[in-house]
Write a structure and sequence with these properties.
Layout (H helix, E strand, L loop, with lengths): L6 H5 L1 H12 L3 H9 L3 H5 L8 H13 L3 E6 L7 H20 L6 E5 L10 H18 L3 E3 L7 H14 L5 E4 L5 H11 L2 E5 L14 H16 L4 E5 L3 H15 L40 E4 L4 E4 L5 E2 L2 E2 L1 H4 L21 E2 L2 E2 L4 E5 L4 H9 L4 E7 L4 H10 L1 H14 L1
Parallel strand pairs: 1-2, 1-14, 2-3, 4-5, 5-6, 6-13, 13-14
Antiparallel strand pairs: 7-8, 9-10, 11-12
Helix pairs in contact: 2-14, 5-6, 6-7, 7-8, 9-10, 10-11, 14-15
Length: about 425
Protein backbone atom coordinates (compact mmCIF):
# COMPACT_ATOMS: atom_id res chain seq x y z
CA UNK A 1 0.00 0.00 0.00
CA UNK A 2 1.62 3.25 -1.14
CA UNK A 3 0.86 6.77 -0.01
CA UNK A 4 2.05 9.76 -2.03
CA UNK A 5 3.57 12.73 -0.25
CA UNK A 6 1.58 15.58 -1.77
CA UNK A 7 0.85 19.07 -0.54
CA UNK A 8 -1.61 17.78 2.06
CA UNK A 9 1.11 15.59 3.60
CA UNK A 10 3.32 18.64 3.99
CA UNK A 11 0.53 20.72 5.55
CA UNK A 12 -0.72 18.02 7.91
CA UNK A 13 1.61 15.00 8.07
CA UNK A 14 -0.06 13.70 11.23
CA UNK A 15 -3.43 13.74 9.48
CA UNK A 16 -2.05 11.78 6.55
CA UNK A 17 -0.51 9.24 8.93
CA UNK A 18 -3.82 8.91 10.77
CA UNK A 19 -5.70 8.25 7.53
CA UNK A 20 -3.13 5.67 6.48
CA UNK A 21 -3.38 3.81 9.78
CA UNK A 22 -7.17 3.77 9.66
CA UNK A 23 -7.05 2.43 6.11
CA UNK A 24 -4.62 -0.27 7.19
CA UNK A 25 -6.91 -1.25 10.06
CA UNK A 26 -9.28 -2.72 7.49
CA UNK A 27 -6.60 -4.43 5.38
CA UNK A 28 -6.55 -8.20 6.07
CA UNK A 29 -2.92 -8.45 4.94
CA UNK A 30 -1.79 -5.90 7.53
CA UNK A 31 -3.97 -7.59 10.15
CA UNK A 32 -2.24 -10.93 9.53
CA UNK A 33 1.19 -9.31 9.64
CA UNK A 34 0.57 -7.44 12.89
CA UNK A 35 -1.33 -10.28 14.56
CA UNK A 36 1.36 -12.86 13.88
CA UNK A 37 4.44 -10.73 14.58
CA UNK A 38 6.38 -12.36 17.43
CA UNK A 39 6.70 -9.10 19.37
CA UNK A 40 3.09 -7.98 19.00
CA UNK A 41 1.55 -9.87 21.92
CA UNK A 42 3.82 -8.28 24.52
CA UNK A 43 2.92 -4.83 23.22
CA UNK A 44 -0.81 -5.54 23.00
CA UNK A 45 -0.85 -6.56 26.66
CA UNK A 46 0.11 -2.98 27.54
CA UNK A 47 -3.06 -1.65 25.91
CA UNK A 48 -5.53 -4.58 26.17
CA UNK A 49 -6.36 -6.31 29.46
CA UNK A 50 -6.08 -9.90 28.31
CA UNK A 51 -8.44 -12.09 26.35
CA UNK A 52 -10.95 -13.28 28.96
CA UNK A 53 -13.16 -12.07 31.79
CA UNK A 54 -10.77 -13.25 34.49
CA UNK A 55 -7.98 -11.10 33.06
CA UNK A 56 -10.29 -8.10 32.74
CA UNK A 57 -11.46 -8.39 36.34
CA UNK A 58 -7.88 -8.76 37.54
CA UNK A 59 -6.78 -5.60 35.71
CA UNK A 60 -9.85 -3.70 36.91
CA UNK A 61 -9.07 -4.67 40.48
CA UNK A 62 -5.50 -3.49 40.15
CA UNK A 63 -6.59 -0.13 38.78
CA UNK A 64 -9.16 0.28 41.52
CA UNK A 65 -6.48 -0.39 44.14
CA UNK A 66 -4.66 2.71 42.86
CA UNK A 67 -7.75 4.91 43.15
CA UNK A 68 -8.85 4.72 39.52
CA UNK A 69 -12.32 3.93 38.17
CA UNK A 70 -12.93 1.62 35.23
CA UNK A 71 -15.05 1.18 32.10
CA UNK A 72 -14.62 -2.28 30.55
CA UNK A 73 -15.15 -2.98 26.86
CA UNK A 74 -15.45 -6.53 25.51
CA UNK A 75 -13.85 -6.23 22.08
CA UNK A 76 -15.69 -7.71 19.12
CA UNK A 77 -17.54 -5.11 17.05
CA UNK A 78 -19.20 -5.38 13.62
CA UNK A 79 -20.94 -8.66 14.41
CA UNK A 80 -22.84 -9.95 11.37
CA UNK A 81 -24.42 -13.02 12.95
CA UNK A 82 -27.34 -13.11 15.39
CA UNK A 83 -25.76 -15.92 17.36
CA UNK A 84 -22.57 -13.94 17.90
CA UNK A 85 -24.59 -10.91 18.96
CA UNK A 86 -26.41 -13.02 21.56
CA UNK A 87 -23.08 -14.40 22.75
CA UNK A 88 -21.72 -10.87 23.13
CA UNK A 89 -24.65 -9.84 25.34
CA UNK A 90 -24.24 -13.00 27.39
CA UNK A 91 -20.53 -12.30 27.79
CA UNK A 92 -21.30 -8.82 29.13
CA UNK A 93 -23.69 -10.36 31.63
CA UNK A 94 -20.96 -12.72 32.80
CA UNK A 95 -18.46 -9.88 33.09
CA UNK A 96 -20.88 -7.78 35.15
CA UNK A 97 -21.60 -10.65 37.53
CA UNK A 98 -17.87 -11.28 37.92
CA UNK A 99 -17.25 -7.62 38.74
CA UNK A 100 -20.04 -7.60 41.32
CA UNK A 101 -18.84 -10.85 42.89
CA UNK A 102 -15.49 -9.29 43.80
CA UNK A 103 -16.95 -5.96 44.88
CA UNK A 104 -15.76 -3.89 41.93
CA UNK A 105 -19.14 -2.35 41.20
CA UNK A 106 -20.13 0.44 41.04
CA UNK A 107 -16.53 1.59 40.52
CA UNK A 108 -16.43 -0.47 37.31
CA UNK A 109 -18.99 0.04 34.54
CA UNK A 110 -19.09 -1.38 31.01
CA UNK A 111 -18.90 0.22 27.56
CA UNK A 112 -20.86 -1.44 24.76
CA UNK A 113 -20.82 -0.95 20.99
CA UNK A 114 -24.17 -1.59 19.33
CA UNK A 115 -22.42 -3.26 16.40
CA UNK A 116 -21.20 -5.89 18.87
CA UNK A 117 -24.86 -6.56 19.69
CA UNK A 118 -25.86 -7.06 16.06
CA UNK A 119 -26.83 -3.54 14.95
CA UNK A 120 -25.59 -4.30 11.45
CA UNK A 121 -27.84 -7.37 11.36
CA UNK A 122 -31.01 -6.05 12.98
CA UNK A 123 -31.41 -2.73 14.79
CA UNK A 124 -34.24 -4.11 16.94
CA UNK A 125 -32.05 -7.03 18.00
CA UNK A 126 -29.26 -4.67 19.09
CA UNK A 127 -31.70 -2.54 21.08
CA UNK A 128 -33.18 -5.60 22.83
CA UNK A 129 -29.74 -6.96 23.68
CA UNK A 130 -28.65 -3.53 24.92
CA UNK A 131 -31.66 -3.52 27.25
CA UNK A 132 -30.55 -6.91 28.52
CA UNK A 133 -27.03 -5.64 29.21
CA UNK A 134 -28.40 -2.55 30.97
CA UNK A 135 -30.54 -4.74 33.22
CA UNK A 136 -27.53 -6.93 34.01
CA UNK A 137 -25.54 -3.80 34.86
CA UNK A 138 -28.27 -2.50 37.15
CA UNK A 139 -28.51 -5.89 38.85
CA UNK A 140 -24.74 -5.70 39.41
CA UNK A 141 -25.02 -2.21 40.87
CA UNK A 142 -23.46 -0.30 38.00
CA UNK A 143 -24.31 1.07 34.55
CA UNK A 144 -23.61 1.04 30.82
CA UNK A 145 -22.12 3.58 28.43
CA UNK A 146 -23.05 3.05 24.78
CA UNK A 147 -19.97 3.63 22.64
CA UNK A 148 -20.19 5.69 19.46
CA UNK A 149 -18.88 4.30 16.18
CA UNK A 150 -18.44 5.95 12.77
CA UNK A 151 -20.66 8.84 11.64
CA UNK A 152 -23.07 6.60 9.73
CA UNK A 153 -24.25 5.17 13.05
CA UNK A 154 -24.62 8.41 15.04
CA UNK A 155 -28.35 8.98 14.65
CA UNK A 156 -29.22 5.34 15.26
CA UNK A 157 -26.95 5.11 18.30
CA UNK A 158 -28.33 8.25 19.93
CA UNK A 159 -31.86 7.01 19.26
CA UNK A 160 -31.10 3.73 21.04
CA UNK A 161 -29.56 5.62 23.97
CA UNK A 162 -32.74 7.69 24.25
CA UNK A 163 -34.79 4.48 24.29
CA UNK A 164 -32.56 2.89 26.92
CA UNK A 165 -32.77 5.96 29.14
CA UNK A 166 -36.55 5.62 29.38
CA UNK A 167 -35.94 2.60 31.61
CA UNK A 168 -32.28 3.02 32.51
CA UNK A 169 -31.70 6.73 33.01
CA UNK A 170 -28.12 6.10 34.10
CA UNK A 171 -27.10 4.93 30.60
CA UNK A 172 -24.22 6.96 29.19
CA UNK A 173 -23.95 8.43 25.70
CA UNK A 174 -20.77 9.11 23.71
CA UNK A 175 -20.16 11.94 21.25
CA UNK A 176 -17.12 12.65 19.07
CA UNK A 177 -15.73 16.16 18.77
CA UNK A 178 -14.33 15.50 15.30
CA UNK A 179 -17.85 15.50 13.83
CA UNK A 180 -19.27 18.84 12.75
CA UNK A 181 -22.69 17.96 14.18
CA UNK A 182 -21.47 17.21 17.69
CA UNK A 183 -21.82 20.67 19.23
CA UNK A 184 -25.53 20.56 18.40
CA UNK A 185 -25.77 17.02 19.77
CA UNK A 186 -24.10 18.23 22.97
CA UNK A 187 -26.69 20.97 23.36
CA UNK A 188 -29.48 18.41 23.08
CA UNK A 189 -27.80 16.03 25.52
CA UNK A 190 -26.87 18.80 27.96
CA UNK A 191 -30.45 20.06 28.10
CA UNK A 192 -31.83 16.55 28.60
CA UNK A 193 -29.30 15.64 31.30
CA UNK A 194 -27.46 12.34 31.63
CA UNK A 195 -23.98 10.88 31.48
CA UNK A 196 -22.12 12.00 28.36
CA UNK A 197 -18.62 10.96 27.33
CA UNK A 198 -16.91 13.47 25.06
CA UNK A 199 -13.99 12.13 23.01
CA UNK A 200 -12.20 13.40 19.93
CA UNK A 201 -13.11 10.42 17.73
CA UNK A 202 -11.09 7.58 16.24
CA UNK A 203 -12.68 6.78 12.89
CA UNK A 204 -11.74 7.83 9.36
CA UNK A 205 -14.45 10.35 8.46
CA UNK A 206 -14.96 12.46 5.31
CA UNK A 207 -14.36 16.20 5.49
CA UNK A 208 -18.00 16.78 4.61
CA UNK A 209 -19.04 15.62 8.10
CA UNK A 210 -15.87 15.94 10.15
CA UNK A 211 -13.05 18.29 11.02
CA UNK A 212 -9.84 16.88 9.60
CA UNK A 213 -7.18 19.04 11.25
CA UNK A 214 -6.13 18.47 14.84
CA UNK A 215 -6.46 22.14 15.77
CA UNK A 216 -10.04 22.16 14.48
CA UNK A 217 -10.89 19.01 16.42
CA UNK A 218 -9.40 20.46 19.62
CA UNK A 219 -11.37 23.67 19.18
CA UNK A 220 -14.54 21.68 18.59
CA UNK A 221 -13.81 19.60 21.69
CA UNK A 222 -13.48 22.74 23.80
CA UNK A 223 -16.74 24.17 22.52
CA UNK A 224 -18.55 20.89 23.15
CA UNK A 225 -17.00 20.61 26.61
CA UNK A 226 -18.21 24.09 27.54
CA UNK A 227 -21.74 23.17 26.48
CA UNK A 228 -21.74 19.93 28.49
CA UNK A 229 -20.25 21.60 31.56
CA UNK A 230 -22.98 24.24 31.48
CA UNK A 231 -25.73 21.65 31.11
CA UNK A 232 -27.71 19.40 33.43
CA UNK A 233 -25.80 16.18 32.95
CA UNK A 234 -22.59 14.51 34.07
CA UNK A 235 -19.71 15.18 31.63
CA UNK A 236 -17.14 12.43 31.13
CA UNK A 237 -14.06 14.14 29.70
CA UNK A 238 -12.26 11.53 27.61
CA UNK A 239 -8.91 13.01 26.61
CA UNK A 240 -5.17 12.70 27.15
CA UNK A 241 -4.62 16.25 25.87
CA UNK A 242 -3.05 18.34 28.66
CA UNK A 243 -4.60 21.58 27.40
CA UNK A 244 -8.09 20.08 27.41
CA UNK A 245 -7.50 18.47 30.81
CA UNK A 246 -6.73 21.90 32.23
CA UNK A 247 -9.64 23.47 30.36
CA UNK A 248 -12.05 20.99 31.96
CA UNK A 249 -10.82 21.91 35.43
CA UNK A 250 -11.06 25.59 34.57
CA UNK A 251 -14.63 25.30 33.31
CA UNK A 252 -15.69 23.34 36.39
CA UNK A 253 -14.12 25.96 38.63
CA UNK A 254 -15.70 28.83 36.72
CA UNK A 255 -19.11 27.23 37.09
CA UNK A 256 -18.58 26.60 40.81
CA UNK A 257 -17.65 30.22 41.45
CA UNK A 258 -20.70 31.50 39.59
CA UNK A 259 -18.75 32.81 36.61
CA UNK A 260 -20.97 30.70 34.38
CA UNK A 261 -24.57 29.56 34.96
CA UNK A 262 -25.15 25.84 35.36
CA UNK A 263 -27.92 23.42 36.20
CA UNK A 264 -26.15 20.32 37.50
CA UNK A 265 -27.51 17.25 39.32
CA UNK A 266 -27.46 17.28 43.09
CA UNK A 267 -24.89 15.30 45.04
CA UNK A 268 -25.59 11.60 44.97
CA UNK A 269 -27.78 11.91 41.91
CA UNK A 270 -25.97 9.51 39.59
CA UNK A 271 -26.28 6.25 41.49
CA UNK A 272 -26.82 3.10 39.47
CA UNK A 273 -30.44 2.63 38.55
CA UNK A 274 -31.44 6.21 39.28
CA UNK A 275 -31.02 9.32 37.19
CA UNK A 276 -31.34 12.64 39.01
CA UNK A 277 -34.24 14.94 38.45
CA UNK A 278 -33.56 18.61 37.91
CA UNK A 279 -35.61 21.53 36.63
CA UNK A 280 -35.52 22.08 32.90
CA UNK A 281 -33.05 24.78 31.96
CA UNK A 282 -31.80 26.15 28.70
CA UNK A 283 -28.16 25.48 27.97
CA UNK A 284 -26.43 28.88 27.91
CA UNK A 285 -24.55 29.91 24.81
CA UNK A 286 -20.99 29.49 26.06
CA UNK A 287 -18.62 30.61 23.34
CA UNK A 288 -15.13 29.30 22.76
CA UNK A 289 -13.10 30.97 19.99
CA UNK A 290 -12.21 28.80 17.05
CA UNK A 291 -8.69 27.53 16.48
CA UNK A 292 -8.11 30.29 13.97
CA UNK A 293 -8.72 33.10 16.47
CA UNK A 294 -7.02 31.80 19.58
CA UNK A 295 -3.39 32.44 20.42
CA UNK A 296 -0.70 29.90 19.67
CA UNK A 297 0.02 27.41 22.44
CA UNK A 298 1.49 24.00 23.00
CA UNK A 299 -0.15 20.61 23.30
CA UNK A 300 2.26 18.35 25.11
CA UNK A 301 1.96 14.61 24.63
CA UNK A 302 3.85 11.89 26.46
CA UNK A 303 6.22 11.05 23.62
CA UNK A 304 6.19 14.27 21.61
CA UNK A 305 5.19 17.92 21.64
CA UNK A 306 2.67 19.20 19.14
CA UNK A 307 2.15 22.93 18.62
CA UNK A 308 -1.53 23.83 18.40
CA UNK A 309 -3.62 26.86 19.39
CA UNK A 310 -5.13 26.69 22.86
CA UNK A 311 -8.85 27.24 23.27
CA UNK A 312 -9.97 30.06 25.50
CA UNK A 313 -13.24 30.29 27.37
CA UNK A 314 -15.22 33.46 26.75
CA UNK A 315 -17.51 34.63 29.54
CA UNK A 316 -20.07 37.21 28.44
CA UNK A 317 -18.02 37.66 25.29
CA UNK A 318 -14.75 38.25 27.18
CA UNK A 319 -12.13 35.70 28.09
CA UNK A 320 -11.36 35.69 31.80
CA UNK A 321 -8.22 33.64 32.29
CA UNK A 322 -8.48 33.88 36.06
CA UNK A 323 -11.78 32.00 35.90
CA UNK A 324 -9.98 29.10 34.27
CA UNK A 325 -7.08 29.05 36.71
CA UNK A 326 -8.68 27.33 39.67
CA UNK A 327 -6.48 25.62 42.27
CA UNK A 328 -7.01 21.87 42.17
CA UNK A 329 -6.49 19.00 44.54
CA UNK A 330 -8.18 20.38 47.66
CA UNK A 331 -10.65 18.15 49.44
CA UNK A 332 -14.21 18.59 48.26
CA UNK A 333 -16.98 19.60 50.63
CA UNK A 334 -19.53 18.05 48.30
CA UNK A 335 -19.46 15.20 45.82
CA UNK A 336 -21.66 13.76 43.14
CA UNK A 337 -22.18 10.03 42.81
CA UNK A 338 -21.82 8.56 39.37
CA UNK A 339 -22.24 4.94 40.30
CA UNK A 340 -20.95 6.08 43.74
CA UNK A 341 -17.95 7.86 42.22
CA UNK A 342 -17.15 11.12 43.97
CA UNK A 343 -15.81 14.28 42.41
CA UNK A 344 -12.93 14.99 44.72
CA UNK A 345 -11.22 18.12 43.45
CA UNK A 346 -12.48 21.48 44.60
CA UNK A 347 -11.88 25.17 44.17
CA UNK A 348 -10.62 26.79 47.36
CA UNK A 349 -12.85 24.57 49.51
CA UNK A 350 -15.92 25.02 47.29
CA UNK A 351 -17.23 21.92 45.51
CA UNK A 352 -16.69 22.10 41.76
CA UNK A 353 -19.20 21.28 39.09
CA UNK A 354 -19.02 17.44 39.02
CA UNK A 355 -17.41 15.61 36.12
CA UNK A 356 -14.83 12.89 35.54
CA UNK A 357 -11.79 12.36 33.36
CA UNK A 358 -11.51 9.25 31.21
CA UNK A 359 -8.34 7.84 29.67
CA UNK A 360 -7.30 4.70 27.84
CA UNK A 361 -5.67 1.73 29.53
CA UNK A 362 -1.93 1.85 28.89
CA UNK A 363 -1.85 5.48 27.69
CA UNK A 364 -0.36 8.09 30.03
CA UNK A 365 -0.75 5.97 33.19
CA UNK A 366 1.40 8.44 35.09
CA UNK A 367 -1.04 11.25 34.29
CA UNK A 368 -3.94 9.05 35.34
CA UNK A 369 -2.34 8.50 38.74
CA UNK A 370 -1.37 12.17 39.08
CA UNK A 371 -4.92 13.33 38.53
CA UNK A 372 -6.34 10.71 40.88
CA UNK A 373 -3.85 11.66 43.59
CA UNK A 374 -4.91 15.30 43.13
CA UNK A 375 -8.46 14.27 44.01
CA UNK A 376 -9.93 13.94 40.53
CA UNK A 377 -12.28 11.15 39.48
CA UNK A 378 -10.39 9.32 36.72
CA UNK A 379 -11.92 6.40 34.84
CA UNK A 380 -9.76 4.12 32.70
CA UNK A 381 -11.25 2.62 29.54
CA UNK A 382 -10.12 -1.00 29.61
CA UNK A 383 -10.61 -3.20 26.51
CA UNK A 384 -10.35 -6.96 26.70
CA UNK A 385 -10.84 -9.87 24.33
CA UNK A 386 -9.27 -11.52 21.31
CA UNK A 387 -10.55 -9.03 18.72
CA UNK A 388 -7.99 -6.37 19.62
CA UNK A 389 -6.58 -5.49 16.18
CA UNK A 390 -9.11 -2.81 15.11
CA UNK A 391 -9.04 -1.21 18.55
CA UNK A 392 -5.25 -1.00 18.58
CA UNK A 393 -5.04 0.52 15.10
CA UNK A 394 -7.58 3.23 15.99
CA UNK A 395 -5.62 4.10 19.12
CA UNK A 396 -2.45 4.47 17.05
CA UNK A 397 -4.28 6.66 14.55
CA UNK A 398 -5.70 9.02 17.17
CA UNK A 399 -2.45 10.75 18.03
CA UNK A 400 1.12 10.62 16.71
CA UNK A 401 2.19 10.28 20.34
CA UNK A 402 0.38 6.95 20.52
CA UNK A 403 2.35 5.67 17.54
CA UNK A 404 5.62 6.74 19.14
CA UNK A 405 4.48 5.19 22.42
CA UNK A 406 3.69 1.93 20.60
CA UNK A 407 7.05 1.98 18.80
CA UNK A 408 8.88 2.45 22.10
CA UNK A 409 6.90 -0.36 23.68
CA UNK A 410 7.68 -2.60 20.72
CA UNK A 411 11.38 -1.77 20.96
CA UNK A 412 11.41 -2.48 24.70
CA UNK A 413 10.08 -6.00 24.09
CA UNK A 414 12.69 -6.82 21.46
Amino acid sequence: MAFGLGAEALRDPAGVLRTALLMMSGDPRVRRLVSTAPLTRGVVERFVAGEDVAAAVRVAGGLRDTGLWVSLDLLGEDVTDRRLAEESATAYGGLLRALADVGLTPAAEVSVKLSALGARVDAALARDLALRVCQAARDAGTCVTVDMEDHTTTDATLAVVADLRREFGETGAVVQACLRRTEADCRDLAAAGGRVRLCKGAYAEPASVAYTRRAEVSASYARCLAVLMAGRGYPMVATHDPVLIELAAGLAGALATGRLPVSAPAAGGWSAGRAPTAPQAEVPQVEVPSAGTSQAGTLQAEASSVATPPVELAVDGRFDRRAAEVPRGAASQGAVSQGAAGQGAASQGVARRPFEYQMLYGVRPGEQRRLAEAGETVRVYVPCGREWYGYLMRRLAERPANLLFFARALRSTS
